[in-house]
Amino acid sequence: MRATTRARRALRVGVLALAGVLVLTSCGVTRGDDDPSNRRLRMMIPNSPGGGYDLTGRAAADVMQSNDLTGRFEVSNVLGASGTVAMQRLINEEGADDLLMTMGLGVVGAVYTNGSDATVAKATPIASVVEEQEGILVPADSPLRSVDDLVEAWKKDPRGLVVGGGSSPGGPDHLFPMQLAKTIGVDPKDVNFITYDGGGPLTTALLGSKIDVGMSGLGEFEGQIEAGELRVLAVSGEERLDTVDAPTLTESGVDLVFTNWRGILAPPGISEETKQYYIDLLTEMHGTKEWQDALERNGWSDNFATGDDFAAFLEEQDERVRTTLKELGLA
Amino acid sequence: MDLLLEGFQTALTPTNLLYAVLGVLLGTAVGVLPGIGPAMTVALLLPVTYNVSPDSALIMFAGIYYGGMYGGSTTSILLNTPGESSSVVTAIEGNKMAKAGRAAQALATAAVGSFIAGTIGTVLLVLLAPTVADLVVQLGAPSYFAIMLASLLAVTTVLGSSKLRGFIALFLGLAIGLVGASTGEARLTFGQPLLADGIDVVVVAVAIFALGEALWVAAHLRRRPLEIIPVGQPWMSKKDWGRSWKPWLRGTAYGFPFGALPAGGAEVPTALSYLTEKRLSKHPEEFGHGAIEGVAGPEAANNASAAGTLVPLLAIGLPTTATAAIILLAMQSYGIQPGPQLFDNEPELVWALLASLFVANLLLLVINLPMAPIWAKLLQTPRPYLYAGILFFASLGAYSVNFQAFDLVLLLAFGLLGLAMRRFGIPVLPLIIGVILGPRVEAQLTEALAISQGDVSTLWSEPVAVVVYVLIAVVAVALAVNAVRTRGSAAPEKEEVDA
User: Fold this and answer.
1) How many CB pairs under 8 A join A and B?
2) Residues of A in contact with B30 (CB under 8 A)
């Protein structure tokens, strides 16, 4: 009989451990209350823990919570098809007044490449929060020394120049080289783009000179850039970065500004009141010191915009992404 | 050496020791719970980096990583429910051992093997990290394709007694591996975005192993007498030790380099270790019925690969697994940039981390070895309750891979496939290895050919690739010669088996 009590004890330990995990991941699903300080909101994240949307969404929820701007946030990761699945769920929850979703440029593109009709235009735009510039990376010993060299080499042999990026087709690292190619007069269809599973494999390919150019956000490459193993030909934003000694594309004579932005959407069909509540909430969040710290810690640039400004920006981005992907036959 | 001793001084302060214990316990717990892996745990714990000192946080994360690699084996062995893709292979022999009343030995060989592999791996890490990392980036897609292809060919040696059934299983696995849109073109997704990322090997393994078996037992519950699981010895016998130590070392030899390779990971070396042990074992007849070598090798391999992963991470700031990527993120949130200068800029931190890996390893052994006989008693639970528990854990595991209810549908579908495979005597191993290797072989081939714009000669453009192809050719010739030589005696026997 001792054996069975022991087994039971072991089982109990297991159940306790499980209960602990459930508490950690907080499975409460309670609907919002009218009192804002008691309000329970849900934040949907379209990729896995540790990814860009996850860090942004969790940082935002955390700042709002710890400053008592609102009640509790329940953050959940909804994975699948680079955000298409989460986007579909947002659209399905039409009129839900307690749901927000962190998203960004990659989700805009993923919806098209996956042939889904849950486009971002259908959702209610709340605010854009952060952006990251893309960088053009080459190995230290690459013959490409400047954007001019790159443009020349690319035009000379469009298919021969191998471009790598850390996102799948429709993601920022894919859209950026395509729009860059178009701007300098290379047919996007001719771009030889290799998809890598994130920054790590892309770094490997660059360090081993398996590809000619890498296009990606620069956060994951700081170590290699500092060590001089990788060089940055240019960054894609409007202004230079403090952290990297490289010109912008515009300075280098290429008329393109491209950023990988992230923002917050709500489901379609919510009341004007709820929308205004979210906008005020995020504006308050944006004003806190904690949020500014989070921006600095993660190397994000501020691109805060709400309401109609963000709606117009979203519309323009949606159209631009759709056109790019359509030309490639991916949308 | 002085630096390492200083590292131990940092790692053994009461606070850091506490974080190491916490990390190891947490890692073991998430390893035991199917679906919740070390990557996700570390990611969810990232916010602690705002409040905790860098060395404490990294020591805890390393503990979680090592603990997770070990903890996955517990449910694999006891419940036939692998929690992580790295412990899928362990379930094959481990659960058979448990059913034969040798659960305690299986758990013990896993614990000791993990300890030995982790320790050797960490020693290699300390010695090699600064130098070896520059070499691994020279390997490109052609080399990986050759290595993966060789692994796939190795599977054909374990197709089981019936080649036909073995190939059916292998091709089923390769077909499951095709699902998804990773190549840019959606295949076998039936317009379902939930299938666009492919099917996770954990879902497939849990379904085929755990659910398939639960259904099989349920289908026969009334027709067959209850098989009572014998109690068995609580500890490893001298014979067990004798049969385990070589697989531990060989598993380490597979795991460490694969962990250090950017496209390596823990799945391929565990599979290769299993195949090797099956081939080399003096007791090949025990494979499929609970051979201790089949647990010792893969379990050593997955822990060694965890150590290997830290080589490129620390030396060139290159994460090769999801967990490593998140540890990198944690370092960056402290403003620490792993890379060539890390050993110069942050020597205290690096050596404290390395020292804490030894500590974590020892802690794992001390905590888990006495637990083995206690865990093993779990199997004394009456079968209806035991299988109810297994079904619960299987569902939980499949669900928490992606937090998608859809994966439960997949679980059920593959569970029925598992039942059918048991009914028709189709081996499970080739299918699982097909799911693991198929997409990798394809991804490397696609990448190589895309870079070369379709020029096939790129496949033998790297020295490593050429060496691997030569090895494949040598083995193939040797096997052919061997087959011809033994044909006279072996052929009739074989026909009998096939019929």
Assistant:
1) 160
2) 21
Do the Cβ atoms of B325 and A114 come within 8 Å? no
Chain-chain contact of B322 with A298 (C-beta, under 8 angstroms): no
Pairing outcome for strands A99-104 and A259-266: antiparallel
Asked if residue B494 is part of any domain, the answer here is: no
Verify whether the Cβ–Cβ distance A114 to B193 is below 8 Å.
yes
> 24-63 in B: which are within 8 Å (CB) of A?
29-30, 32-33, 36, 39-40, 42-44, 46-47
Q: How far is A259 from A255, CA to CA, in rounded Å?
A: 14
Q: Which of A63, A85, A178 to probe the B interface (max B CBs under 10 A)? A: A85
Q: What tokens appear for B1 in the block?
A: 């050496």
CA distances A204 to A166, B205, B259, B267, B460, Å, are 11, 30, 14, 20, 19
CA B207 to chain centroid, in Å, comes to: 17
A272/chain B closest Cα distance in angstroms: 31
Domain that holds residue B72: 2-461
State how many domains chain B has. 1
How many angstroms away from the CA of B385 is the closest CA of chain A? 11
What count of other Cβ atoms lies within 10 Å of the Cβ of residue B172? 18
Residue of A nearest to B396 (CA): A18
Query: One digit per residue, pLDDT tens: chain B, 499 residues?
Result: 677 788 888 878 888 889 989 998 888 888 777 666 777 788 778 777 767 888 888 888 888 888 887 777 888 888 888 877 788 888 889 988 988 888 888 988 998 998 899 889 888 888 877 676 667 777 888 988 998 888 888 777 666 678 888 899 999 999 999 998 776 677 888 878 788 888 888 888 889 888 888 888 888 876 655 565 665 666 788 888 889 889 999 999 999 988 888 777 788 899 889 988 988 888 888 888 888 999 999 999 988 998 888 888 887 777 777 788 788 878 877 777 776 667 777 778 888 888 888 888 888 888 888 877 777 777 777 778 888 888 888 888 788 777 778 889 999 999 999 999 988 988 888 888 888 888 888 888 988 998 888 888 888 888 889 998 998 899 888 878 887 887 655 444 443 333 3
Of A92, A263, A105, the C-alpha closest to A173 is A105
Residue B7 C-alpha, separation from nearest chain A C-alpha, in angstroms: 23
Tell me the angle at which helices B54-79 and B38-45 cross, rounded to the nearest 10 degrees: 150
* Chain B residues inside the 8 Å CB shell of A192: 450-451, 453
Report if residue B301 sits inside a domain: yes
What residues of A are in contact with residue B328 (Cβ under 8 Å)?
Answer: 200, 220
- Hey, is the C-beta of A219 within 8 angstroms of any chain B C-beta? yes
Q: Which fold has domain A29-131+260-327?
A: D-Maltodextrin-Binding Protein; domain 2 (3.40.190)
Beta bridge partners of A253: none
Q: Touching check for B295 and chain A: CB below 8 Å?
A: no
Output the CA–CA distances (angstroms, integers) from residue A206 to A132, B285, B335, in the order listed: 21, 48, 23
Annotated domain spans of chain A: 29-131+260-327, 134-259
Q: Would residue B427 count as lying in a domain?
A: yes
In order of A10, A191, B22, B229, B392, the CA distances from B382 in angstroms are 15, 62, 33, 10, 16
* pLDDT tens column, A282-325: 999 999 998 998 888 888 889 899 988 999 999 999 999 999 88
Q: Does A168 touch chain B (CB under 8 A)?
A: yes
Give domain status of residue B321, yes or no: yes
A134-259: CATH topology is D-Maltodextrin-Binding Protein; domain 2 (3.40.190)
Helix pair angle (A272-287, A289-298), 10° resolution: 70
